[in-house]
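Whether sequence alone determines local backbone shape is best considered at the level of individual chains. When preparing material for the folding task, we compiled for one chain both its residues and its backbone structure tokens. No coordinates are needed to read the tokens, only the vocabulary itself. For completeness, the protein is quoted in full, as a sequence line and a line of structure tokens:
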Amino acid sequence: MAVHHGAAALGLVGAMPSGPGIISDELIASIAKTVPPPVATFLLTSEQSTGNIIAHVLRAGTNTVQIVDELAEGSYKEIKCKLPAVKIVQVIHVTTDASIEQAISIAADVDALLLDSGNPIAAIKILGGTGLTHNWEISREIVKAVNIPVFLAGGLNAANVKQAIETVKPFAVDVCSGVRTRGKLDKSKLNEFIEAVNRAA
């Protein structure tokens, strides 16, 4: 459905401490095999060590890994060495101006950044799918400060995505809860969202 409506990439959500859309690694691998090029397949992983991230990508068979928490053990270089064909997207959960420095410090080591509205320090980590926006002015400063593609996520929907694009000027936008009804992908919402993105572009 997403590909039919013009999505440039699919986010396939692995095990998470919370949030919508979680599916098994087996199902992720099955979907990834059927996605036609040039549509990208993003594995959303909450793993924080390079060894576990690499193993997760190998199980999933996607061409991109979206690391939704901070890398706590190992290095991005190690991931690139083991998985040279896989693109690395690091999520920055935008909270304060400190997120700008965090993004700058990581940008040289990854292929893209994704700006979201999670809370990795909550008692139960919130790493995406919140339906909440964040301060787009901070996101705009991040886009200006780095020289790699920046994806914007967090509370986007058909009603606000035009303003988000005009404010932040991201490389692309990412949506989850904004195109779901009762936790499932909603064809009408998906169509409205992509039409709004195309109008803004």
Remarks:
- DSSP finds seven helices and nine strands in the chain.
